Amino acid sequence: MFKRMAMVAAIALLGLAAMTQAGEAKKFAFIFKSTGNPFGEKVMEGYKTAIEEQGYECILRAPDLPTAEAQIMIIEELIAQRVAAIGLSANDPDALQPVLRKAKRAGIKIVTADSATNAESRDLHINQADPELIGRVEIQAAYDMAGGKGDIAILSATSQATNQNIWIEWMKKELEDPKYANMKLVKVAYGDDLRDKSTSETEALLKTFPELKVIIGPTTVGLAAAGKVLSDKGLAGKVFLTGLGLPSEMAEYIQNGVCPWMYLWNPIDLGYLAGYAAVGLADGAITGAVGDTISAGKLGRKEVVDDNNGGTEIMLGAPFRFDKDNIDEWKNVY
Ligand code: RAM
């Protein structure tokens, strides 16, 4: 009799524990760099799909401005909400470290995607594509468009953005090749992933450097803003545009010749993979160590590798080239 009662009590306790655990471990958040960025919306859409597909609740957040301070405030709120994991496209590699440490101490797993923090601030990074390849192909594209000669300017996002800064480093390394002796990088401008600022920075580049041959925009917001400026000014064929663009925003400028070609990866898949990684970390299926593998839904099995920078990452794939021949297939997808 006593034994039976004890067993019933134990089962009830177990049930309660599972409920509490389930109740507490159910929310997964993602914070993008800022609002009003269609690329970021697609990343968050993919993350949400992955989280909901696994039966959990998803919270999507983004600050109005792409600053670390604004993301810190959101992270504080999410710690108070006791989320299981935070996915994050970081506005600064180091500035989020104290708040992310606090989150980790509270048992929250951290997975960055798109734009990483330093290795200590996260459990794992989801990398869209090899940064070296991204940087180098953009300079190679500028070379081909300009016929190997002329001034180039870069219109980036914020000066603190981890992803853009790594790509720009690789662009500069590519430019060291003697092949580029007749090409000069005259300026790196920052449009802060804000449409208006990116527009005025493009106008300023055209004014300051009348001989400008190519603008490279390693940001979808900057590239679309520059596409509009060059189209409005009738500069197709005179100043070329390339970089990383969202097909839905760039189709018009690819068709009118302003941007002969550009690159990107699938932002929905990027968020989706981050969603599977977040759940894997929170459930303890992976720790984010090299060699860990996760089954990432429709993307199949993915492996954690060394990021060669003190941390670990999962790579989504290779950058994809969009031009007049294929843009129509993609402009309604993302
Ligand atoms: C912008 C953002 C994002 C970047 C893309 C290419 O939307 O800066 O972080 O990955 O461009």
What do these coordinates show?
With 334 residues, the protein is of the alpha/beta class. The chain contains eleven helices and 15 strands. The strands form four sheets. A seven-stranded mixed sheet has the order 2-1-3-4-5-14-13, sandwiched between helices. β3, α4 and β4 form a beta-alpha-beta unit. α2 crosses α10, α3 packs parallel to α4 and α5 crosses α6. The longest helix has 23 residues. The radius of gyration is 22 Å and the shape is elongated. About 6% of the residues have low confidence. Bound molecules: alpha-L-rhamnopyranose (RAM). Alpha-L-rhamnopyranose binds next to α8.
Bound molecules: alpha-L-rhamnopyranose
Strand content: 15-25%
Cα distance, first to last residue? 64 Å
Averaging pLDDT over every residue, what do you get?
94
Q: Give the helices and strands as they follow along the chain.
A: HEHEHEHEEHEHEHEHEHEHEEEEEH
Q: Can you tell me the overall shape?
A: elongated
DSSP, total strands: 15
Number of helices: 11
| Portion in helices | 40-55%
Name the structural class.
Answer: alpha/beta
